[in-house]
Amino acid sequence: MHLPLLEFAYNDKRHASTGLSPFELNYGFRPLSPAIIGIPHRVPSVVEFLAQMQQKLEMARDNLSKAVAWAESYARENRTYREFENGDWVYLLVPSKSKVLHTRKCAKLSPRYCGPWLIIKKVSQVAYKLQLLVGCKVHPVFHVSKLKKCLHDGNSLVEGLVSLEEKDTTGYGPERILDRRER
């Protein structure tokens, strides 16, 4: 019932990025609101209308380029640059409830970084290939945002410190049903 009013309100609202409303960008003028219907208003000639439309489109294009420049500068300010070399040890950020990569150092309620893992190849400026365990079912290439530098030389690692656990889900289930109810 209120959808036409919501549509009108959205199409009449000026957007911060363009400085114009969507209706104004499409049709070249502000939509007539119910409050001013019936009040006489001036209709521009075709030449005036096209000149105004061109002016509004140029203004919207300039405003959009300013918004893009602002977003790029904001992203550049808050970005952290990380670079690794082949042979570096890194920790890998995994979701806390990930069932693909189980390690003793990366249990459910532990910190979300697990590892350490050895970088074997720099694939691109932002992607690195890690030496994962043999039975691991994860693609070995990760984005740099998922990696964190490990502050040891790799010689102090204990064999088996990081291991892949195969979780066997078969055999789990209720031994017997004690009660039952229907809703």
Q: How would you portray this structure in words?
A:
This protein is an alpha+beta fold and 183 residues long. It has 2 domains: 3-78, no CATH class; 89-149, no CATH class. Helices cover 27% and strands 14% of the residues. It contains 3 helices and 5 strands, in the order αααβββββ. The protein has a 5-stranded antiparallel sheet, with no helix packed on it. Strand 2 (113-122) and strand 3 (127-131) form a beta hairpin. The longest helix is centred in the middle third of the chain and has 33 residues, at 46-78. The two termini are 35 Å apart.
Beta-sheet strand percentage? 5-15%
Number of domains: 2
**How widely separated are the two ends?**
35 Å
Pattern of helices and strands: HHHEEEEE
Describe the strand arrangement of the main beta sheet, using strand numbers.
Answer: 4-3-2-1-5
| Structural class by sheet pairing and helices | alpha+beta
* Radius of gyration, in angstroms, nearest whole number: 30 Å
Number of helices: 3
Features:
alpha+beta, 5 strands, 183 residues, 2 domains
Write the layout of secondary structure elements.
Layout: H1 3-12, H2 22-27, H3 46-78, E1 89-93, E2 113-122, E3 127-131, E4 141-143, E5 147-149
Antiparallel strand pairs: 1-2, 1-5, 2-3, 3-4
In short:
By secondary structure, this protein is α+β, with helices and mostly antiparallel strands. The chain has helices at 3-12, 22-27, 46-78, and strands at 89-93, 113-122, 127-131, 141-143, 147-149.
